[in-house]
Amino acid sequence: MAPQNIKLTYFNGRGRIEVSRLVLVAAGKEFEDVRVPEFTADLKAKTPFGQLPLLEVDGEVFAQSVAIATYLAREFGLYGKTNLDGLRIDQVVQLVQEILNAGYKAYLFTADETQKAQLIKELKEKEFPRYLEYFENLLKNNGTGYFVGDSLTLADLIVYDVAFAFIQRGFGISGYPLVEALYSSVESHPRIKPYVAQRQPTPN
Questions:
Q1: DSSP helix/strand/coil, 54
Q2: Where is the signal peptide (predicted)?
């Protein structure tokens, strides 16, 4: 039975929950979008593992951002049609986690300004282009404009989301025409377009 009540809890930003929001928006599902100003001790005590984001489904609380996005995509038809499709999606999701972790390390977890600048330089000149090349090749191999099958899945949404995050920091995706086309396709989706248009700008 499909869940009746869905609540996402995170900070007031995109971060590690935005792809789950995009899944729900693309699927046309209503959900409660709780945005907390700070991670208080009281809130932390109510989490399974002492961290955000959280997903509450009919009163039961879950954590771990990838698990949340994967569940929602499966539940609402954005996870392909076969187990092999799921594997194809999972590999894209894992690639995105790698580049996200590199981004978090450079921008959020490095205090030394000289080291931070070097990490950002490497991210912009080497790491991000390397992952864009991976995505470009996967799109080329599938040949439909999507990563899996011939319709929107979690893989497309998560690559759009990470590309958006890096573009906001001055990175580019030009030179990767299939990635550019996918980005435009997701952004112009009839449900996602109005959502993105009204989304409050946040640094992360």
A1: strand
A2: none
Residue 175 has pLDDT above 80, yes or no: yes
SS3 of 35, please? strand
Mean pLDDT for the stretch of residues 33-56? 95
In contact, 192 and 22? CB cutoff 8 Å:
yes
Reduce the DSSP state of residue 123 to 3 states and report it.
helix
Structure tokens at 200: 């409050």
Residue 190: the pLDDT is: 98
Residue 41 tokens, joined? 């001790």
pLDDT category at 42 given cuts 50, 70, 90 is very high
Rounded Cα gap, residues 66 and 108, in angstroms: 20
Strand partners, 9: 34, 54
Query: Measured between alpha carbons, how far is 65 from 47 in angstroms, rounded to an integer?
Result: 13
CA-closest candidate to residue 137, choices 95, 104, 170: 95
| Helix, strand, coil in percent for the chain, rounding step 5 | 55, 10, 35
Residues with Cβ within 8 Å of 58's Cβ and at least 6 positions away in sequence, in order, are: 3, 4, 5
**What does the pLDDT look like over 185-197, one tens digit per residue?**
999 999 999 999 9
Q: How far apart are CA 54 and CA 102, in angstroms?
A: 23
